[in-house]
Input
Amino acid sequence: MGWSERRRLFLGVLDVIASITAMVLALAIRFDGEIPLRYLAVYLKVLPLILPVKLLTYHLFGLYRQAWAYASLPELLRVVWAVSAETAASWVIIYELQNDGFPRSALIIGWFLTIGGTGLIRLSLRLRRDYYQRRRAERGRVPGNPTLIFGAGDAGAMLARELDKHPEAGCAVIGFIDDDPKKKGLRVAGQPVLGTQADFEKVVHRHSVTHLIIAVPSAGRGVIREVVDKGRSLGLQLKTLPKLYELVNGNVSISQIRDVQIEDLLGRDEIRIDIEAIAGYLSGETILVTGAGGSIGSEICRQVARFNPGRLILLGHGENSIYHIDLELRAAYPDLQAVPVIADAQDRNRVARVFERFRPGVVFHAAAHKHVPLMEHNPEEAVKNNVFGTFNVARAAKDYGAKRFVLISSDKAVNPTSVMGATKRAAELIVQALARDSSTVFVAVRFGNVLGSRGSVVPLFKKQIAAGGPVTVTDPRMVRYFMTIPEAVQLVIQAGSMGTGGEVFVLDMGKPVKILDLARDLIRLSGFEPDEDIPIVYTGIRDGEKLFEELLTAEEGTMATRHERIFVARTERLSEPRLQGLLDDLREAIAGGRCSNGVILKAVQEKIGRSRPAGVAGAGD
Output
């Protein structure tokens, strides 16, 4: 007999003893210690029937398949259900076979006692494991750093238990700080809640705290920033848990503890998405993502993969980036049918062949040139990729019957002053024009900068800090809207489920952030002081840049949608003849070698009825 069988037999014997003992105690309680012999006789007579039913019921409820040394509340509930089912069966057996007035109250008391006994047997296994694990940890324990956990909720409790099991992490938890004053003085996961934020400094000094771990994955930007600023002023080593969407299955592990990042300071409250609506248009479909190897495109692939698409087509121009996202998805989702496709959106025939072969039902078009100053010096490439690449993919989506087409647009498409912005506005006009008289639902989603994307300011600042500075800021007044890549993509996918055709959705980007403040935060998070350890220098506004980005023109305005973070812009739509005129003008400019910044901006702004703002220079004028 193997260990597993011996363990089950052992538990079964203990359960039988607990059950008999519970019923005898129940009868003793019911009759004040003097049990009538006739009731004992009834119970002993039906016992040979009750015990097999009990053991079978416990088996069906999995009480002999559970590793009770790792049990928690859900396993306790399983015990309650198993005992309840077994008690109901015993009730039927006793009153059907021995209708001798057996007291019902004794069965009810026995139910409580059996739950207690059966649960206690299993709890003792958990306590035994914890005791020996703690003994082993104590024998090899290295004195840890006095650590305070901010947040005495589920995540904080799980974290405290994990740190207690893993002394090698070097964190000796001394307690919690929590904003809920009702928790003060309580114990969570064996550790005291020492106070609220108001007691923060006092607790740190009293217990000589050196490390702080923020364990509130759903906390908003204001709370995190306040805690980080306070902790930094007290000289603490700051760590945090990931946001909710980063936690795998909601479980916390030591490996997930990381340094506080700029995304934690700029993040907003948790985004609520309509899972059913998203799954309704992605599950089982063939999904095509262009620019699948880029920052936004690769995150779209990761999030789409969660919704069990029929196939996921990873289309991109760069073989290395497509190779890496394909590898990542195959490792994370072994059952996913991912198809890497190397193709250029500017090649209309190649795009058409891809659509003819795979017939995608949903298309996310993320392929684009997006670096503003770089495109000022390469306007022709911006037009070919952002305008004609978009037209090729969108036209193929319409011709081959795709159900939905989602364009990833930009806040720089609003009152464009750069080539990149003008070409993205032209891309919006393309999908709006094609939405007319089409069975394909075409939508565009417009949002601001995403933190950490390729070519964005955050990786540049990090590189400059690592090199010892200086950190370069174009202008101290420069502000931008920011989102993290995962939250932007969540809203993009949500918006894709909402359109009826031709909408330009605008994401709520929150409050704009000063680039100078962003630089200072990154310097401090890196362990330095701005202008002391790392200098900040101002380089002047670059070609095509604005001091303030806009998400809407003054004329557009918005309409609300059913999602609190997504709005519809009231944008002007072009007719197909006017769109064709815009495309012809741009083709002629490319063919004649006249594709300068001024020509591109003029062509787009004439079609949307606006002139170029004064005082904005372009490199190609």
